[in-house]
Amino acid sequence: MASARTTYQDRQGGQGGGDAAAAAHPFVWVSLRDPSPDELAAVQREFGLPAPLVDGLTTAARRPVLEFTGELLFAVVKTTTWVAAEEAVRLGEVQLVLGDGFVVSVDRDGAVLEDVRQDLEDDPELAGAGLVAVLPCVVDHAAEGYGPVLGALNNAVEEVEEAVFSPARARPTERIYQLSRQVLEFRRAVAPLTEMLDRLATDSSTAAGERLKQRYRERRAHLLHLVELADGLGNLLANVLQANLTEVSVRQNDDMRRISAWVAIWAIPTLLAGIYGMNFRHLPELEWAFGYPLVLVVMALICLVLYRGFRRSGWL
Question: 100, 179 in Cβ contact below 8 A?
Fold first, then answer.
């Protein structure tokens, strides 16, 4: 549990053109990490936050959120990391409350907000835009992790695709299902963010300048591309799962044909041995010295003929 309070003052002087030359907007940024109820209560009292909004800061959201509550903007941005040992997408999130001259953030990722602070310190023009620059910076750094995660998912899907068509008789059904779940989790974290960015880029109620709105549009285009790739992986996994089930069915049919072929082959000696094992006086060649070897030869010849016939037909 940790918290930090930062005040961003005017880093520019004089007049210029465009958004970069606009008067800087100092604001207070209170950053919380796994806040306690007492910390949230203190923040609520200081900034006059409504109780439902504070309640939202206590739990993780299932998907990105963008809500306007009076003069407040509440946003949730999802972050993703790839856990190779588990072949899983681990989701984090950054919750932001933007108000008049203040930002309250709850970080459940650990790295994104540090990068955002560094951006604001390194780019006076960006910091001069005020608190409206915080959200696009958070989105940018969260989105930096999406590409590597999607790349890792793509590699895992290629591996499981090879396993399905491998002669090694692997059983990747469970892995295919788990990867499908991870692709779905990734899409759930990214797809709603494109709607958020589109709203921020076009909504006149946001105070973002043209530079930031252009940044929203560029990032939205990039995220739409990632969502399309994720959809492609999801469709590919569905096809791979169907192909795997088909392969399993084909292998089961092959096994049944082999079993049936061997049963048919061994049925002949069983039949002949059963007949000659009966206690009848009048059976062919009972008194002949070569009768027993002849029956064995006949058995072997019939079995050989059946074996070759099944081999030609592909049953063995």
Answer: no
Per residue in 130-157, pLDDT tens?
Answer: 677 788 888 888 888 899 999 999 999 9
Query: Pairing mode, if any, of strands 88-99 and 72-83?
Result: antiparallel
pLDDT tens, position by position, 13-32:
333 333 433 345 677 888 88
11 alpha-carbon distance from chain centroid: 41
**Burial (CB count within 10 angstroms: exposed 0-12, middle 13-18, buried 19+), residue 297:** exposed
Selection from 64, 51, 128 nearest residue 96 by Cα:
64
Q: What is the phi-psi region of residue 112: left when phi exceeds 0, alpha when psi lies from -120 to 50, beta otherwise?
A: alpha
CA atoms of 300 and 303, how far apart (whole Å): 5
- Summarize pLDDT for 65-76 with one digit per residue, the tens: 888 888 888 889
Across residues 277-289, what is the average pLDDT?
A: 61
Sheet holding 102-107, edge to edge: 2-8, 27-33, 102-107, 88-99, 72-83, 65-69
Tokens encoding 276: 């000659």
**Which of 103, 139, 127 is CA-nearest to residue 4?**
103
Instruction: List pLDDT tens digits, range 36-70.
Output: 888 888 888 888 888 888 888 888 788 888 888 88
pLDDT of 98 above 90: no
Helix (H, G, I), strand (E, B) or coil at 81: strand
Q: What are phi and psi of 28, to 5 degrees?
A: -100, 135
DSSP state of 204: T
In angstroms, the CA 61 to CA 73 distance is 16
